[in-house]
Write a structure and sequence with these properties.
Layout: E1 12-14, E2 21-23, E3 37-38, H1 52-69, H2 73-93, H3 98-119, H4 126-149, H5 154-171
Antiparallel strand pairs: 1-2, 1-3
Length: 183
């Protein structure tokens, strides 16, 4: 019976030095002048990342914050869109991630507020008003989805309340929507 050591039968280690040769096979067929060789019984390795959704959540949050502070409307929209795709990716990894839904709703709300500030004081077109309504509707939808998963998180309801307040400011009597004849 061959001598037992800590290596299994498939492991061979050979160094480049002419005096060193380690092998647990009875006779090493690898010359000592050959380069280092290591073979292992491990055929593949797939890392498991438990909370990959959190990476996308953090990226979405960072992109949303960058969009809020960006002064260019076009760049800001692109950053908000990229943030939305990160939140969507986070949800695809963990559909019960209410925090990603909440922050996605917040990002949509902030995008609407940024557009509202740009429209303030000018006569907006019907398409601009519809875009504002769409963003607020989407935002409220994300907050509602989050509330179905985690009904006890007050931040979700704070977001919904903020949407209602802003809707009344923007689209209330004598406000923005009346400038194009809509209610």
């Amino acid at each position: 019976m061959p001598e037992s050591n800590s290596f299994d039968k498939t492991t061979q280690i050979v160094s480049n030095s002419s005096s060193s040769s380690v092998s647990n096979t009875p006779e090493s067929s690898i010359p000592s002048s050959s380069p280092q060789v290591f073979s292992s019984p491990i055929k593949s390795f797939e890392p498991v990342i438990k909370h990959l959704n959190r990476i996308f959540f953090e990226e979405g949050t960072a992109l949303s914050k960058m969009a809020q502070s960006n002064s260019s409307d076009g760049e800001s929209d692109a950053l908000f869109e990229e943030a939305a795709s990160r939140y969507k990716e986070a949800i695809s990894f963990n559909p019960s991630d209410y925090r990603s839904l909440n922050n996605w709703g917040l990002s949509l709300f902030n995008r609407a507020m940024k557009k509202s500030a740009i429209l303030n004081g000018k006569s907006p077109s019907e398409s601009e008003i519809n875009e504002l309504k769409r963003l607020l509707d989407e935002s409220q939808g994300k907050f509602s989805e989050a509330s179905m998963i985690e009904p006890k998180d007050y931040r979700i309801y704070l977001g919904i309340g903020n949407i209602m307040v802003e809707r009344s400011k923007i689209f209330g009597r004598g406000k923005l929507c009346n400038s194009v004849g809509k209610h």
